[in-house]
Amino acid sequence: MQPTAPAWNEAPPETRHISRLTRETLGLILAGGRGSRLAALTDWRAKPAVPFGGKFRIIDFPLSNCVNSGVRRIGVLTQYKSHSLIRHVQRGWGLLHAEFNEFVELLPAQQRMDEHSWYAGTADAVYQNIDIIRHHAPKYVLILAGDHIYKMDYGPMIAAHVETQADITVGCIEVPLDQASAFGVMEIDEQARIVKFVEKPPNPEPMLGRADVALASMGIYVFSTKFLLSALIRDAGRHGSSHDFGKDLIPGAIGRHAIYAYPFQDTQRDKQGYWRDVGTVDAYWEANMELVQVAPPLNLYDRDWPIWTSQEQLPPAKFVFDDDDRRGMAVDSMVSGGCIIAGAQLRRTLLFSNVRVESGTVMEDSVVLPDVSVGHDCRIRHAVIDKGCVLPDGTVIGYDPEHDRKRFHVTEKGRVLVTPDMLGQPLHTGEQTPG
C-alpha cells in the first residue's frame, strides 16, 4: 500500500513522541555561521551565541527542542569565532547522561577531510563529520539550523518521515511572499511531496491558491541515514557544487527521491507555530520586544517545554528609590537577575543579567545585554546595547538619527545598535573574551 502524507497544515497529534524513533535519531545543529546581517553583534561571536530573551543564547532553543523531544544524541557543528559558543555549551549543557548514551558533542571545523578544508557549506559541514555519524550509527539524522528562535517537538516530524517512507523531510512554514526571497522556497503536490525547491529566489513563487504567501524551509531536515551518507558523498565529488543543503543537495534529489514537506503547527492554538529568524538587527530587536508584551507569542514560562541554558547564580533584580524625581521602576518590561534599577524608569525594555541603570535615566523600547552600566540622566530608546557597554552620564540614543549614525549602527527602521567598540571602550573584562 502506498504511504500517504497528512494533509497540508493538518495539525499533528499533541502527544510527545519520545520513543524509539527519537532515540534512534542523531541531531546535528549547524552553528558555524557568523550571521553578518546582525552587524557588530557578531563581530566577536557566532550568531548562535548571541544572547536572547533576557538570559538565553540563540543556540539554547534548538538544543532545548532536541532534549525536550527526546533527541538526546546531539552534535553542535561550530566554526566562526566559536569560543563563547563552545564555552556556553560546555557550561550549560552537561545535563545529559553519558551512561544512557546521551550527549552534546562539540564538532568544530577541524580539517577532517584534508588539511586545507574548513566547512564550505551546510552539506559540507555534515560531510566532514561523516565518520562521526557512522560511529553513532543512527537510523535517522535530524539537521537543524542553530540560529532560529522557536519551540518544536521534533518527534512528530520524525514519525511523519517514517510513515511516508521519505528520504528527506523538510520542516516548512508559510511566509509572506514579499519576504520569501530570504528563504528556501518550495512547491508541493497534493501529498505534500516537494516537486520544486529554490534557495533564496529573487522572484519566489506563491503557494497554489495562495497568492500572498510562499512555502519556505525552516532549515530543519530529517534524513534517513543511509540516504544522507550516499547523498553527501555524491555531492562532495560534484564539481561546481557549493555543498549546501538548500542550494545543491535537496534540489538535486527532487524527482528522483521521496522528499516531503512537514508543516510546523502550534497544536494548542491551531495555527502555524512560532518561528523567528533573528538574522537582522531589526528582527532581533522585534523578537526580543515581543517578549515584553502582555501575552507574548513565545511563552518562556511554559513548564512543559522549558528552555534550558547555562544558569549563572545571581541575586534577584533590585529597584531602589521612591522619590517623585527619582523612582526605580519598570513597566511592561523584563528584568533579569543581578540588575539594579537605581531611580531609573524602564518602559517596554528587556534587561539581561547584571545591568545597572542609574537615577534620572529613562529607557524605552530597548534591549540591553549583560553587564551593561548606564549612567545618570540618560535618554535611550529603540536601542540594542551590547554586552559590557558603559554609557556615560547624559547619554542620548534614539532621538537624533543623524547624530546616532556618526557613532553607532542605525538600521533602516531606526533601531540603534551600540557596542563597546563603537564607544571606544575595551571589551568586557569580566570574561577574557567577549560573548
Automatic annotation (TrEMBL):
The keyword RNA-binding does not apply. Alpha-D-glucose 1-phosphate binds at Y119, G184, E199, K200, S217. Residues 27-292 form the Nucleotidyl transferase domain. It is an enzyme of class 2 (transferase). Its EC number is 2.7.7.27. GO terms for molecular function: ATP binding; glucose-1-phosphate adenylyltransferase activity. Keywords: ATP-binding, Carbohydrate metabolism, Glycogen biosynthesis, Glycogen metabolism, Nucleotide-binding, Nucleotidyltransferase, Transferase. It catalyses: alpha-D-glucose 1-phosphate + ATP + H(+) = ADP-alpha-D-glucose + diphosphate. The record marks Q79, W118 as: Could play a key role in the communication between the regulatory and the substrate sites. Residues 315-418 form the Glucose-1-phosphate adenylyltransferase/Bifunctional protein GlmU-like C-terminal hexapeptide domain. GO terms for biological process: glycogen biosynthetic process. It holds the Pfam family NTP_transferase. Coiled coil: none annotated. Pathway: Glycan biosynthesis; glycogen biosynthesis. PROSITE patterns: ADP_GLC_PYROPHOSPH_1, ADP_GLC_PYROPHOSPH_2, ADP_GLC_PYROPHOSPH_3. Belongs to the bacterial/plant glucose-1-phosphate adenylyltransferase family. Involved in the biosynthesis of ADP-glucose, a building block required for the elongation reactions to produce glycogen. Catalyzes the reaction between ATP and alpha-D-glucose 1-phosphate (G1P) to produce pyrophosphate and ADP-Glc. HAMAP family: GlgC. Homotetramer. This is Glucose-1-phosphate adenylyltransferase. It comes from Panacagrimonas perspica.
